[in-house]
């Protein structure tokens, strides 16, 4: 049972291994939303995520016999690193089962803490089933990543720190995967101040908690589809569900496209790398229908590999109309390309790529296609460039972006 005494004990225990993640005031998002927005940057923890809190506290509650057996868990990445790191500190061997889709950086970081890593299943739920099987076969002690009240108590230490630093907080936004973080934070926050509103945030493609709340019971989604891999869970924790029912005021679901823009905003305005699951609470800020409130968004983690980062930045620029591709037809004669180049230079459009296709029609003298990928300042600038091309009689057409500069953008 989650009690105030348990949360106090957990907070004291986890303080021995966690870094201090002071609230960060966001002038940018405050201005955007009309609220006072603060971030709880758990992406800056030693393991890159909050998960070390629950893992370390859970291990502290185990008996010597349970520790001697060795630990096993399943995780999409952050809990894996939390358990591996906590187990290393306690001198206990750990086995981690991770989905085959887990980013390489998370796999390598987990191995770096000395854990044995096994890749199994396409999603967390499949990896978890396999971890249970191995626990039985090898006689290992299973540490669940979220459906465990000790783990939830450890995660709840975040609420203790938020309320101590900002006693007048009005709203706390919490990412939801299986529900461990949300159950811990919401329950303790309500104990400390029942007036605090708790908003859970899930990816739209893995909204198992939202659907469970709607039906009034724990339900499992048939499948999940989201770039927020840390919250790609089919079924929430049944041990946690009653706490979330009682303490969470609302659950918001976020589309993947919103996470892409949120990543760009965080990098440009706060110079922080936050993984997609951690960005759920950033994207949710624009869904809040309140003003002049003190809002804390928990940034749950920052473990993102550089390939994913590159893709997200590129897609974000495309969504913001700062990168776009236009197709125009030109007579196939010398000097036409120079005319277009001069026009674009006048309008301050920065050319990233040119593709000159002479085989768009059988009659090459009639027309050739020129595809130009441009960098712009945003939507207004893009529209100005398109209008300038139209005014010169080029009849420009936007080409649907596919996410890479070499293919449509």
Provide the fold topology.
Layout: H1 4-14, E1 24-26, H2 27-33, E2 36-41, H3 52-61, H4 64-69, E3 71-74, H5 78-90, E4 94-98, H6 104-112, E5 116-119, H7 124-138, E6 141-142, H8 149-165, E7 171-175, H9 180-192, E8 197-203, H10 208-215, H11 241-247, E9 250-254, H12 256-270, H13 280-283, E10 294-299, H14 306-319, E11 323-330, H15 336-346, E12 350-357, E13 368-375, H16 379-391, E14 397-399
Helix pairs in contact: 1-8, 3-5, 3-8, 5-6, 8-9, 9-11, 12-14
Folded structure, characterized:
Strand 3 (71-74), helix 5 (78-90) and strand 4 form a beta-alpha-beta unit. The protein has helices at 4-14, 27-33, 52-61, 64-69, 78-90, 104-112, 124-138, 149-165, 180-192, 208-215, 241-247, 256-270, 280-283, 306-319, 336-346, 379-391; strands at 24-26, 36-41, 71-74, 94-98, 116-119, 141-142, 171-175, 197-203, 250-254, 294-299, 323-330, 350-357, 368-375, 397-399. The protein is α/β, with parallel strands linked by helices. Helices cover 42% and strands 18% of the residues. Mean pLDDT is 92; it is low at 404-409. The strands form three sheets. A six-stranded mixed beta sheet has the order 1-2-10-7-8-9. It is built from 16 helices and 14 strands.
Based on the model shown, name its key terms.
six-stranded mixed sheet, 16 helices, 42% helix, disordered C terminus
């Amino acid at each position: 049972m989650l009690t105030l005494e348990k949360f106090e004990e957990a907070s004291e225990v986890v303080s021995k291994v966690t870094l201090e993640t002071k609230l960060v005031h966001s002038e940018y998002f405050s201005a955007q939303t009309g609220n006072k927005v603060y971030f709880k940057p758990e992406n800056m923890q030693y393991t890159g995520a909050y998960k070390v809190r629950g893992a370390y506290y859970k291990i502290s509650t185990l008996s010597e016999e349970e520790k001697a057996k060795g630990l096993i868990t399943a995780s999409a990445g952050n809990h894996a690193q939390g358990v591996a790191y906590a187990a290393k500190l306690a001198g206990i061997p750990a086995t981690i089962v991770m989905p085959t889709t887990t980013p390489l950086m998370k796999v390598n970081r987990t191995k770096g803490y000395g854990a044995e890593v096994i890749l199994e299943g396409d999603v967390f739920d499949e990896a978890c089933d396999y971890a249970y099987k191995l626990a039985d076969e090898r006689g290992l002690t299973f540490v669940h990543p979220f459906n465990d009240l000790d783990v939830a108590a450890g995660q709840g230490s975040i609420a203790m720190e938020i309320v101590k630093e900002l006693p007048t907080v009005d709203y706390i936004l919490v990412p939801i995967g299986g529900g461990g973080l949300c159950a811990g934070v919401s329950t303790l926050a309500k104990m400390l101040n029942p007036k605090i509103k708790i908003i859970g945030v899930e990816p739209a493609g893995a909204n198992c908690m939202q659907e469970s709340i709607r039906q009034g019971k724990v339900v499992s989604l048939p499948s999940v589809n989201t770039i927020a891999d840390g919250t790609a869970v089919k079924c929430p924790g049944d041990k946690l569900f009653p706490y979330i029912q009682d303490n969470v005021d609302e659950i918001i679901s976020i589309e993947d496209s919103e996470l892409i823009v949120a990543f760009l905003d965080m990098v440009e305005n706060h110079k922080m790398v936050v993984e997609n699951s951690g960005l759920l609470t950033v994207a949710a800020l624009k869904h809040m229908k309140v003003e002049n409130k003190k809002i804390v968004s928990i940034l749950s983690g920052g473990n993102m590999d550089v390939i994913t980062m590159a893709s997200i930045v590129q897609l974000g620029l495309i969504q913001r109309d700062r990168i776009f591709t236009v197709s125009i037809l030109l007579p196939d004669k010398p000097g036409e390309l120079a005319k277009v180049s001069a026009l674009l230079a006048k309008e301050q459009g920065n050319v990233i790529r040119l593709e000159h296709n002479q085989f768009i029609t059988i009659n090459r003298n009639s027309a050739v296609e020129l595809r130009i990928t441009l960098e712009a300042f945003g939507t207004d600038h893009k529209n100005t460039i398109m209008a300038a091309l139209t005014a010169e009689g080029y009849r420009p057409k936007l080409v649907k972006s596919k996410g890479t500069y070499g293919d449509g953008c």
